[in-house]
Amino acid sequence: MNLTTKQQTAVDAYIEKLILPSEPLAPLWNRETVIFGKQPKWNYIDGCMVRAMIMYGEFTGDSRLTGYAERFTDAYVTDDGRIPTLNYEDFNLDNVCGGRNLLWLWRNTGCRKYLAAAERIFSGQLERQPRTASGSFWHKKIYPDQIWLDGVYMALPFMAEYARLTGNGSITADISAQLGTIKHKMRDRTSGLYYHGYDESRKAGWSDKETGLSQEFWLRSMGWLCAGLADICETVPGIADDMLCGLLESLTDCAQSDGMLLQLPFSPELEGNYPETSGTLLFAYAAMKAARLGAAGQRVLNAGIAALNAVSEKYISFDGDGMPVLGNICLMAGLGGEPYRDGSAGYYLSEQVTENDAKGIAPFLMACTEYLQIC
Q1: Considering the entire predicted model, what is its pTM?
Q2: pLDDT reading at 212 higher than 90
Q3: How far apart are CA 137 and CA 145, in angstroms?
Q4: What is residue 276's three-state secondary structure?
Q5: Tens-place pLDDT, residues 238-268
Q6: Which residues is 147 bridged to in the sheet?
Q7: Does residue 375 have a pLDDT over 90?
Q8: How far apart are the C-alpha atoms of 157 and 146, rounded to whole Å?
Q9: Is the preceding omega at residue 130 within 30 degrees of 0, hence cis?
Q10: Is the pLDDT of residue 329 over 80?
Q11: Could you identify which of 8, 92, 108, 233 might form a hypothetical disulfide with 3, taking C-beta atoms 3.0 to 4.6 angstroms apart as the criterion?
Q12: Measured between alpha carbons, how far is 148 from 225 in angstroms, rounded to an integer?
């Protein structure tokens, strides 16, 4: 089966009007950089977008996308494999996300600098990443003893690919142990959903003093978790299948009648709660991929397809120049920091909503790629 006409038109227009015209040091899809005037540097937003274009380009044979991925990466990686704008001492798991693109480029070009850069990410950061007493990575150096769901997608699939490349079974065991801790500590046994954050020290103001957990089930954090688990399942079959299937089933239970998921999916009664597209698309991607890999059944597959179709039909429009406009994207959300983010429902519903940000466009391309494979 093919994508719907609207989906294919949107994909083609994003490629022609957003991706290929973007200068690597000023990508049009990174709304945070545009809004806040950030200087270009290695970051997870661009890493996710490049990952999505590699996936779609490789499956469809569109060498323009894979070629652009190489050109984009070359703007940030030196000939000897250094990434000057990546500070390993930040110990920020988000910065690991682009490592998978480096491994793909190494496999597909044979250029040694990409492997060298990936090796630096592993040895320069992950081997030294601070850990909780229970053995899990801190999300960032500035968030001691804290696990955030986002970190699963950002770091563990790269570790899985690196383990496969090197044949290092201890890395795979580490991934399994960290996922086990997240499932044990952060999963709500009643709903099957996962809390956004966990502070093992209980020192953060947002953490419950008894459980260490944040207050809410935030959609995109669970979307990152779903996508990360699905990618790990593809690289290391069997290691995360049950965890992935359980979360997908629980999110399917929360889906609205049209297939959309809400910013706070377990609280549909809250005033101001809204259908959020980036998290819905990450769910769609993971659901279809899990079904393709045999980790989930028809119900989850149907929910994933419905989610992709709902976003496409209701939240993608086209401007006068034919540019697709994907709306209802939560620009950012987190815990702690400055100004302080308390993890309350009110906080998540107050964060800025934007359009055409990579955190929505990348999952859209990823979900479309999976749909083409599964259908």
Answers
A1: 0.98
A2: yes
A3: 8
A4: coil
A5: 999 999 999 999 999 999 999 999 999 999 9
A6: 198
A7: no
A8: 19
A9: no
A10: yes
A11: 8
A12: 10
Task: Count CA atoms within 13 Å of residue 16 on its CB side.
Answer: 10
Owner of token pair 């979360």: 247
Residue-number span of the structural domain to which 343 is assigned: 5-374
Q: Residue 230 corresponds to which amino acid?
A: A
Across the chain, mean pLDDT equals 97
Mean pLDDT across the stretch 268-275? 98
Query: Number of folded domains in the chain?
Result: 1
pLDDT higher than threshold 90 for residue 1: no
CB pairs under 8 A, 24+ apart, for 79-86?
A: 79/113, 80/113, 80/116, 81/112, 81/113, 81/114, 81/115, 81/116, 81/117, 81/119, 81/120, 82/117, 82/120, 83/42, 83/117, 83/120, 83/121, 85/40, 85/41, 85/42, 86/41, 86/42, 86/121
Which amino acid, 127?
E
Chain segment 94-121, per-residue pLDDT in tens = 999 999 999 999 999 999 999 999 999 9
CA distances from 72 to 42, 61, 76, 194, 351 (A): 11, 18, 7, 34, 30
User: And the tokens for 40?
Assistant: 């270009």
Token output for 31: 């709304």
pLDDT confidence of residue 321: 96
Tokens, residue 160: 């899985």
What's the CATH number where 49 sits? 1.50.10.10
